[in-house]
């Protein structure tokens, strides 16, 4: 008849511990094949000095290497789980074998270690959520909410009112866009003071470029308010921001969602040129209006008798825009390469 020793078990996320109640155990043979652990040894158990053995078929796969250590009172066996995780029970069959019992001492150790882990996590978190992280997170959250509101509002209005919605974008959206774009000046400061790892020039080009269109071209000319170009400019701007800001928010906690990262570093490829083209259309449409109204024109001395129209500056600005497009396109291309190259290297 086969004699089985008493076996106590416990688990951690990566390991299984078995404590076999055999004193002075000798000729210990323990190995794992597939999910089954086989144990055989000679020692003093419940039925005196005898051969004892047992088999356990684990509920999940384990690594084939087993370590064991015998003391005068028991044999301790450690088996490594194939995949990290918490098992709902030890063995495949729902009714546990009679010789098997939970090892409460070890569970207690486990509980203590869990509490230690938790307090370590808490102490880390409190250090981690520094002032800078908190500030960046809130900033990105506010921008994300603002641009999401813009994007969703414009999309819903497009579905409900169709083409008509293109003509009143400025009236319905501009207040939130003003708010978000004024706030975006913070990004220039962040870059200038090294709060985030990015160049000042690309950020300045981005913020100044957009605010020029928003405040000077759209904001100061009522004639522009009902033009469909406002819709295209606002829609293109918000289309990138609803991905860029949540990407930064996750970054604040060293977390990433691969799809979001891919979107943040990819959809600018079509959006940026389209955005610049839409902005250029807005500038071109505003030129005759500035010309007629003489708004922002600089009067010259009476002797010369004329003024320098703002529309001249707009011609120069059109050239600057494409220069800006080139600089920022190159910058974003480099950022994309850096991001995906670093990721690939980390993966290797
Ligand atoms: C100098 C005078 C100016 C004269 C202007 C005249 C010319 C004007 C031409 C203007 C053309 C503008 C056209 C434009 O308006 C059209 C459009 O926007 S269309 C829509 C598509 N647009 C886009 O896709 C651009 C979106 N914007 C951006 O991407 C940024 O503003 C830009 C500055 C262009 C690039 O961003 P950045 O350099 O910051 O790259 P990363 O996102 O890779 O960030 C680098 C690292 O910094 C961390 N970071 C950055 N910001 C934050 C933040 N707010 N919170 C937390 N962390 C942040 C980021 O995580 C990266 O860190 P790591 O590398 O460690 O991951």
Automatic annotation (TrEMBL):
Task: Please report the stretch or stretches of sequence annotated as the CS domain.
Answer: 2-91
Q: Which coarse location class applies to the principal site listed for this UniProt protein? A: endoplasmic reticulum
EC numbers for this chain: 4.2.1.134
Matching entries from Pfam families are given as: PTPLA
Membrane topology is: Multi-pass membrane protein
Q: Where in the cell is it found?
A: Endoplasmic reticulum membrane
> What GO molecular-function term can you cite, just one?
very-long-chain (3R)-3-hydroxyacyl-CoA dehydratase activity
- Using the UniProt record, name the top-level EC class of this enzyme in a single word: lyase
As recorded in UniProt, coiled-coil segments are none
Annotated Gene Ontology cellular components are:
endoplasmic reticulum membrane
Its protein name is: Very-long-chain (3R)-3-hydroxyacyl-CoA dehydratase
At the highest ranks, the source species' classification is: Eukaryota, Metazoa, Chordata, Craniata, Vertebrata
């Amino acid at each position: 008849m086969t004699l089985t020793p008493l076996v106590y078990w416990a688990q951690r996320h990566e390991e299984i511990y078995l404590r076999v109640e055999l004193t002075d155990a000798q000729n210990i043979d323990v190995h794992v094949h597939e999910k089954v652990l086989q144990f055989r040894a000679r020692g003093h158990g419940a039925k005196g000095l005898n051969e004892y053995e047992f088999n356990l078929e684990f509920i999940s796969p384990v690594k084939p290497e087993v370590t064991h250590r015998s003391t005068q009172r028991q044999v301790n066996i450690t088996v490594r789980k194939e995949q990290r995780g918490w098992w709902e029970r030890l063995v495949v069959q729902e009714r546990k074998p009679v010789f098997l019992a939970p090892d409460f001492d070890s569970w207690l150790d486990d509980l203590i270690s869990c509490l230690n882990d938790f307090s370590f996590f808490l102490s880390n978190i409190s250090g981690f959520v520094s002032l800078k992280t908190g500030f960046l997170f809130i900033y990105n959250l506010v921008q994300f909410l603002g641009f999401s509101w813009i994007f969703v509002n414009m999309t819903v209005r497009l579905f409900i009112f169709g083409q008509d919605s293109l003509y009143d974008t400025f009236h319905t959206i501009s207040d939130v866009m003003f708010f978000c774009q004024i706030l975006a000046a913070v990004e220039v400061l962040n870059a200038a003071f090294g709060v985030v790892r990015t160049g000042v020039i690309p950020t300045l080009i981005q913020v100044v470029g957009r605010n020029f269109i928003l405040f000077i071209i759209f904001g100061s000319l009522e004639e522009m308010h009902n033009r469909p170009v406002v819709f295209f400019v606002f829609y293109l701007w918000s289309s990138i921001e609803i991905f860029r800001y949540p990407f930064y928010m996750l970054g604040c906690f060293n977390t990433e969602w691969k799809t979001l990262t891919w979107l943040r570093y990819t959809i600018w490829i079509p959006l940026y040129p389209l955005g610049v083209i839409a902005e250029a259309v807005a500038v071109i449409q505003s030129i005759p209006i500035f010309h007629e109204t003489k708004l922002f024109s600089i009067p010259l001395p009476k002797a010369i008798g004329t003024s320098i129209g703002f529309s001249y500056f707009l011609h120069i600005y059109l050239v600057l825009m494409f220069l800006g497009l080139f600089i920022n396109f190159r910058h974003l291309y480099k950022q994309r390469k850096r991001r995906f190259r670093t990721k690939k290297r980390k993966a290797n």
